[in-house]
Amino acid sequence: MDFNIAVLAGDGIGAEVTAEARKVLDAVGQRYGHTFSYEEGLVGGCAIDATGTALPDVTVALCKRSAGVLFGAVGGPKWDDPTAKVRPEQGLLAIRKGLGLFANLRPVKLTPALIDASTIKPEVLEGTDLLVVRELTGGIYFGERGRKDDRKVAYDTMIYSAAEVERVVRMACELAKGRRGMVTSVDKANVLESSRLWRETATRVAADYPEIQFQHLLVDACAMHLIRRPASFDVIVTSNMFGDILTDEASMLAGSMGMLPSASLAEGKLGLYEPIHGSAPDIAGQGIANPIGAVLSSALLLRHSLGLDEEANAVEAAVDRALAEGYRTADIAEPGVEQVGTTAMGDILASMVG
To answer: Is pLDDT above 80 for 287?
Structure first.
């Protein structure tokens, strides 16, 4: 089968890690008889430099006509002015809205070979395999904001509709049916009115899934339990800002942000797939970035947008095998362990898929 993939490498190490993800996809194609073609688009800081906007219209059009979107990272010191009218991060927020990407999936599955890479005790980490489903197009990041009283007072508005909550909670419940059948809805219903709506709506949706073990948890309690008993979670569903914070916390369970993928999904098959790490300008161009998060993101692309489960499993198995055989990039290498660079790790993973 032939598939056209949009590649938005973005800034910093984005181009380096997406190149390795493409390499692994090509190895999948050779093994399973698929052809992947790639079309590149601008987003983030590089798009600002070239067009004056963080997300050109042609990039959105490219994504809409593609089977899936492979995304790198945006941002860097060159554009790091919080008062600037145009910022790289605006491109990421805009593409989520423009493509209707309402649910962000971030799996955190502990690889046995890396159990010592985390600062958490191995006995606490053992068995960790969770999925955070983050609502992506509502909440405080998209609500009304501004300054008043001579700019001495600032406000950001968290706003949610029942429909926005329902669709993301329903997706979480559907995903849980294929996992261990547990969903934890996270909010701040003891303080926030938007969270009370969230909890009411989530409770109503959960009633449609009697086979799911469903619970509510306050966000501060969830933050503590992620460190104390991470293996007790299966699927966590939460709002935009809470999900942003909790998933970065959860990434440390795996030892490095460079390890973890994500999928941002729309109502249909279209999705955007990106590692959860940023553009890492401090190591860009040095050839030492960890491409595993991007490679695992390509596995999510295979599974969710292309419906190629066997191929996705092969990519994930290749990552497990490479780590089990001792291959390490700088961010996950123990002292004294030989390190491989970005390109070498991509070559290793591609060979293990093929």
So the answer is: yes
